[in-house]
TrEMBL record:
Gene3D superfamilies, per database record: Pseudouridine synthase
Stored InterPro entries: PsdUridine_synth_cat_dom_sf, PsdUridine_synth_RsuA/RluA, RluA_PseudoU_synthase
Pseudouridine synthase RsuA/RluA-like domain sequence ranges: 20-185
Molecular functions per Gene Ontology: pseudouridine synthase activity; RNA binding
Protein name per UniProt: RNA pseudouridylate synthase domain-containing protein 1-like
GO BP annotations listed: enzyme-directed rRNA pseudouridine synthesis
PANTHER family recorded: MITOCHONDRIAL RNA PSEUDOURIDINE SYNTHASE, RNA PSEUDOURIDYLATE SYNTHASE DOMAIN-CONTAINING PROTEIN 1
Family: Belongs to the pseudouridine synthase RluA family.
Alphabetical list of Pfam families matching this protein: PseudoU_synth_2
Amino acid sequence: MINGERPPFSTVEVLYRSENFLVVNKPYDLVLNWDDPSRTDSLQHLLQERFPDLVDESLTHRFRFVHRLDYSTSGPVCIALNKQAAGHAGKAFSQKQVIKRYLALVRGHISENNLSIDKAIGEQGAPDAPVPMCVEGTPGCQQPRDAVTQLTVVEKGLYEGQPATKVQLCPVTGRRHQLRVHCHSIGHPIVGDYTYSCHQDTSPYRMMLHAQKLIIPLREEVIDIETNDPFVTNFDPQWQSTER
């Protein structure tokens, strides 16, 4: 991707492949799968076209997605290629052995270099709420559950001429939209997050959240994936680093 232009979906990058697992680099603005089989705009459909030999017709979505990424988020997605592998990976996730690290550009300059964001997250129950999830204490927030994110400042700069900070985000828990909600809750929403900016942040070509690193420490094989940083000036000249 150069100057904010996305490569065709058909160029989905394979990051890792073995007898048990396939890891691909999911593009931004692409859903993993649809319940409607006629929809072809999904990662599932791309995988079906590229790897017809890996399709399991007995599965509703044809592949065993070990975990999920939001529609707007890019980065590694792991697919188990058999039932046993799916079970091992699922156990690693449930026992919180998996390490996930994300990169994001957020609005404003964060003064602290390291933050632990410990705010429970629940569903927004207000019928006219512009966002689906919220932190505990927000009017209308229902059934909040513990949520913790570790934030580390990588560098500060400007995006579209406005202050922005590149951060590394490590979710300790796995709530829906956790990183987006937590960043918004501290007054530094993710650049291009249409939903949690109440539909105001529309000029960026994408939401600036990327799952950079994924480690699944299985006994049989260790999946250790680290992808390139997509938030660099060569890719998107709207981002300009001013300090590290």
